[in-house]
Amino acid sequence: MAEIHTERLYLRNITENDAKDIYEYAKSTKVGSGAGWAPHESIKDTRIIIKNIFMTRPYIFGIVLPELNKVIGTISLVSDIKREYSNSLMLGYALSYKYWNNGYATEAAKAVIEYGFNTLNADIIAAYCYPFNKASQHILDKLGFTLEGIQRMAELRYDGKIFDNYCYSLLKSEYLSS
Hints:
Layout: E1 3-5, E2 10-13, H1 19-26, H2 29-35, H3 43-52, E3 60-65, E4 70-79, E5 88-95, H4 104-118, E6 124-129, H5 134-142, E7 146-156, E8 162-171, H6 172-177
Parallel strand pairs: 5-6
Antiparallel strand pairs: 1-2, 2-3, 3-4, 4-5, 6-8, 7-8
């Protein structure tokens, strides 16, 4: 079980006890649609996702505000399904809209990227976002990721719409030299 502490946050594996906190932000159309997943319709949906996805992968972390002991988002490093290279990981994150524009996603991502390169020994970490998701693009730029290009018609979203993906990446060598 991995745990990461930053200046303001605590990153830890998700448990079933986090369902209420996650449902609180995952039901919002502001959060899921920008990341490609349907807003949760019930806490039951959240519990199923926690059990079948979050708890089955070791590097999906809850972003916890320690002073509130509240999960305000998730951040993950998972296999990059768009690359045929075993030392590549994909960064993903979602944050409650109530906590946007406070630097929490950037702070959590910095810690998870460090973990990915230094502990998991990744050579490259990629991230993908929709062209309209300017907030994610801004975070990736701040983190030193390079825009590789646009994968056209890359993703069929839950609502049947097809979107391009902006493909970003950060090499371990770039991370170590910054």
